[in-house]
Amino acid sequence: MSDDAKPKKKKGGGMKMILLIVIAMVVGGAGAAGGLYAAGFFSPKAEGPKEDPNKPVLVLAGESAEEVAKAHGYAGGGGGEGGGHEGGSGGGHVASGVHVPAKGIDLPTPANPAAYQATYFQLQTPFTSNMSDTDAFAQISLAVSTYYDIRVVEAIKAHETAIRSQVLMMLAEQPVEALSTPQGKRALQGKIKAIINDILKQKTGYGGVDNVYFTNFVIQ
C-alpha cells in the first residue's frame, strides 16, 4: 500500500483543546479574582487613627521652637488672647479623623532634657490675690518652660484668661504661712504647673509645660 493511501490526521483538534484550556484558565482566574475582591483583598486597607498634626513635638538642642512647629504644619501667629480656640494655630484645633482622648494628653518631659531645647515664656501681668483667712495678699510673676515647640507657648497666650482665673482662685485658698517657706513655694509651683497643663489639655488636647518659675514673689 502506498503512503498516499494512509489516512491523513485531522488538523485543528489540538488547537481546540488548547483554546478550551486557556478559556478555562481565564474563567477560573476571573472567578478567583472575584472571590478575593469580595473578600476585600483589593480594597484599601483601613488605617488607624491619624496623629494630630497640631500635637506639639520636642525641639532638639540648638533648633528653633518656631521652625520645628512650622515643619510640622504650624501656620504661625494667631495666638492672641482668646483667639485660638476655634481652629486658630494657638488653640490646637483638632483635625478631622484625628483621635485625641477627651481628657487630653500629658506631653512627658524627655528622659534626657539636655538633648532638647527649652523655651521660656514670661506671663507679662503679675498675679495678685488676697490670702486665705488674712488681710495679707500675694503678688507673683510667673514664667514657664517647655521642651516642645512654639505651639505650647501660643496655646498659653490663647487661653491666658482661663489660666489666670484658675491660678488666682487657687492662690486665694492658700494660707500665708504655707507660702512663706521654700517647701510651700515649691508646692505652689507644682499646683500652678498642673493648672496650666490641665487647661491646655482641655482647650487644645495637649499639655507640654515642663516647669513654672517665680520671677517675682511678694507677700504683704
UniProtKB/TrEMBL annotation:
Query: In what way does this protein cross or attach to the membrane?
Result: Single-pass membrane protein
Q: Which UniProt keywords apply?
A: Cell inner membrane, Cell membrane, Cell projection, Chemotaxis, Cilium, Flagellar rotation, Flagellum, Membrane, Transmembrane, Transmembrane helix
Q: Which GO terms describe its biological process?
A: bacterial-type flagellum-dependent swarming motility; chemotaxis
> Does the entry feature the keyword Flavoprotein, yes or no?
no
State the InterPro entries in the record. FliL
Record flagged with keyword rRNA processing:
no
- Localization, UniProt: Cell inner membrane; Cell membrane
Q: Which Pfam families match?
A: FliL
GO CC, one annotated term: bacterial-type flagellum basal body
* Function (record text): Controls the rotational direction of flagella during chemotaxis.
Q: PANTHER family under this entry?
A: FLAGELLAR PROTEIN FLIL
The family this protein is said to belong to: Belongs to the FliL family.
- Designated name of the protein: Flagellar protein FliL
